[in-house]
Inverse folding.
């Protein structure tokens, strides 16, 4: 496969003009998304350290993938995220506080998937991909104008669900865009120990799925590639596999010790490729991002972070009866019996 497509380099300079860059206002809006995503990552990390959030898988360094994935979708489209895609869900318009509910330890995903057209975050690797293809296939059968953006990481490409999803999508021309955020590690397993393929994009060849490699830290290139992939799906031409070359700067989660499997020197090599700093440099150099506008964006991001802090600080009394809700559409006799037993025990304690 060819080298990942790039339009803007680490210094913010334009290195290719074919295809043309997105319009300046599109890039400025994308930069706003990067600022918000970075602040959300930082705020969530702080909440974990304070014990107010159970776990957080940061997307620091991968925010361009998150922002671009949401930016290219229409209201009628669907986003299928993983556990690391909090920033993508927030960029889709879901309240960040609602996105963090599950990671705070609640039993539900925190938002209405149907109303937001965002599927619940998938913690098991690749299990959401066949679901994404199913939604796309159903929309196609019903004649709906719907495209599905299915996110996953490099580790997910080692799962059977990934291959089944690609095969089904290709055979039935499902309107799905598979965005693989190749951040080089499946927790602690490096890419070289996962696949001997020339690239992850090469995996699309065997299924007849067009594949593209793109610099996952170049927001402009991501927007161009994903926009075309979505348009192709909307035209009824089937799925596209996009491999975004990026890097996870921070630990897998707060429970991870990355020093056991990678060096700090490796991380330092990727820090200058930061997607936020790259886009900022480009917008400042072209005069699109003024100091006043940057101050406005920073203030708005701080307001969002304060909203998240305040919301995560509120205690909600758990309802034990929810243990039996949504297990079956019609509760079984055993569930009713167990619910009654728990209710009786709780009445005794309160009496």
């Amino acid at each position: 496969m060819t080298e990942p497509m790039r339009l803007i380099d680490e210094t913010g300079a334009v290195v290719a003009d074919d295809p043309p860059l997105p319009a300046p206002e599109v890039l400025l809006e994308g930069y706003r998304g990067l600022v918000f995503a970075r602040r959300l990552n930082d705020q969530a990390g702080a909440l974990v350290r304070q014990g107010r959030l159970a776990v957080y898988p940061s997307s620091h360094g991968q925010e361009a993938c998150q922002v671009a994935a949401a930016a290219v979708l229409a209201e009628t489209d669907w986003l299928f995220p993983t556990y690391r895609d909090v920033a993508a869900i927030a960029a889709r318009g879901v309240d960040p506080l609602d996105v963090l509910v599950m990671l705070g330890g609640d039993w539900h995903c925190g938002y209405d998937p149907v109303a937001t057209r965002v599927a619940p975050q998938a913690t098991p690797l690749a299990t959401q991909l066949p679901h994404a293809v199913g939604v796309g296939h159903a929309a196609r059968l019903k004649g709906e104008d719907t495209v599905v953006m299915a996110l996953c990481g490099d580790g997910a490409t080692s799962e059977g669900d990934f291959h089944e999803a690609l095969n089904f999508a290709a055979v039935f021309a499902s309107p799905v865009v598979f965005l693989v955020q190749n951040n080089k590690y499946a927790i602690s397993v490096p890419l070289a120990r996962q696949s001997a393929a020339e690239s992850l994009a090469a995996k699309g060849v065997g299924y007849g799925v067009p594949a593209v490699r793109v610099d996952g830290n170049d927001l402009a290139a991501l927007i161009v590639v994903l926009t075309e992939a979505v348009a192709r799906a909307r035209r009824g031409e089937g799925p596209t596999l996009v491999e975004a070359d990026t890097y996870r700067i921070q630990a897998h989660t707060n429970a991870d010790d990355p020093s056991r499997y990678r060096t700090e020197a490796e991380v330092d090599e990727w820090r200058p490729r930061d997607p936020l700093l790259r886009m900022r440099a480009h917008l400042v150099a072209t005069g699109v991002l003024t100091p006043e506008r940057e101050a406005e964006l920073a203030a708005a991001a701080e307001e969002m972070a304060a909203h998240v802090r305040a919301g995560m600080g509120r205690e909600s009394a758990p309802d034990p009866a929810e243990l039996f809700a949504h297990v079956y559409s019609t509760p079984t006799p055993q569930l009713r019996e167990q619910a009654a037993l728990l209710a009786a025990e709780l009445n005794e304690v309160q009496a």
Summary: Residues 24-49 form the longest helix (26 residues). The chain has a mean pLDDT of 95. The chain is about 40% helix and 10% strand. The two ends are 70 Å apart (CA to CA).
